[in-house]
Amino acid sequence: MSLLAKKGIKLTEHSIPSRMTENDRRSFEVSPLLNEGRVSMTPSEEEEVDILAAAPAICSRKKKGPQWQNCRATFCCCTSKKARIILCLLVILLPILSFTLFCSIYFSAASLPTDTIPLDQVSSLQQTTTAPRLLTFNMFMRPPGIKNNKDDFKNERLEYIVQNILPHYDIITVQEAFAYANRRIDTLLSAAFAQGFYYHVASARHYPWHLAGDGGLLILSRFPIKKSNRIEFSRGVHSDWLSFKGALHALIELNPTQHIHVYTTHTQASYDNGGAINFDDTKVRLSQFAAVHQFISDTAKNDTHPILLMGDLNVDAATHDDVIEQPSRHNSLAYTMMMDVLTGKGTRLDLIDNKTSSETVYASDWKLNDLTDIAYKTYGYHPITFGDYKKLDNGSLVPAETTLTSHNQLMTVQSIDRLLWSSNNNTHISIGNLTVEPFFTSNETNQPFTQISDHYGLSALLYL
Questions:
Q1: CB–CB of 239/227 below 8 Å?
Q2: pLDDT in tens, 112-138
Q3: Which of 53, 207, 245, 414 has the greatest count of CB atoms below 10 A from its CB?
C-alpha cells in the first residue's frame, strides 16, 4: 500500500503521467503534496518520503538492484554513451594537458634582454683587453634532490659564485650546470648578463617525457659569440644515462681581427670507487671523445683560429702509487688513450681489455697534432683537481673537503679537469698563466661549505 493510500489521499488516473516506473510514480504522488502542506508525516514516514521524493534516476535502463535506484539523478547529464565517452576523455586528458603546459613553461629557458646589449661597451672591451681571463670549472649544481651528503647547499653556493667568481673572468665554461627541474641556471644567466656576460651557449633543455635531463654545459662570454653549435652524445651508462651529455662550441670574437674556438664537454663518469676505470665506462667515454674530435673538425678545420677545449673530461691523468703527496709526472693509460682519440690518432680497446680486437678505432683523417695539455705543460705534472688532501700541523693527511665530495672519492687525488690548447696554425694568440683554482671560501664569509664545488677550477690568460 502506498503512503498516500495510508493517508487517505487518492489521485485520479489522468493526474498521473503514463510510462512511469513504480518509484517515479510514488515520487510524483508525494512531492506536490508535501510542498502544499497537505500531508503530515511521522519521523519514520518523513524518512521514507525523503527517499521517495528524490529526483528520478535514469543512468541505466536495466534494473541493477536497490543501490542503483537513484543513480539517474546523479548522472542525468550523461544520458548517452557518447556523452560518457567525452566525460572520460576529459577526465584523462585535462591532467595530461595541464602537466604538459606546466612543464613547457617551467622547464623552458628564461628569456634574457638581448635586445638591450650595450654594443659600445662590448666594443670598448674588445679594444682595451689584451689578456682575456679564462676559467673552466665543474660547479656541481645537479638537479633537485641529487646530492652526495646531507646537503650540498646549491642556492648558497650559486649566490657565492655570482658574487665572488663571475666578476673576475671574461670567458667561462661550466659543467654540471643542470637546468632540469629548477631555475638556478636561469638565475645564473640573469646575474651573469647583469655583470656583462651578454653572450652564452647552453645545453638544450629537456622535459620529463624525455626521461633524462640536460647536459649541464654552459659557455659565458663578455665577448661576442659569432657562431655557436652543440651536440649530444648517445646515452651513457649507469647514472649518466639520465643526462643528455654532449659538447658546446662558441666562435668568440676577441676583437674584429682575432677569434677563438671555445669548446666544453663533460664526458661519461667513472662509477667505480676511487675513480678506477672499467671497460664499459671507458668504451663509452672514448666514443664521446671521438664525437668531440669530429665536432671540432666540423666547426674549426677550415680556418686558423686557435682551439680551446675545456671541461671535466672524467679521465684521471695521474698515475698513483702509495705516496699521494708525490705529484704524478707520468700519464695514466686512460689519459694516453683519451689524448690519442682527441688528436685523431685513434686507439686500441685491447689496451684495457685483452678480449677485444687489437685494431685501431676512432682514428680520423684530420689531426690535431699540437693539442696540448696546458696544466701539464705549466706544472710538469698532473695537478690534483678532485679529491684533494691537506696536511695538518701534526703531519697527518686529511681530506681537503668533505661537505660536497662523495665519501668514496675522498683523498683520491685525481686530475680530471682539463684545459687543452691547439694553435691551429695561428701565431697571433697564445695562452699562459694557467692556475689551479681551489676556490676555498674565506672564514669571514661564514658559509656552510668550504669550497664552491667538489672540483677545483682551472684559469688561464689569453695573450693577443
A1: no
A2: 777 789 999 999 999 999 999 999 999
A3: 245
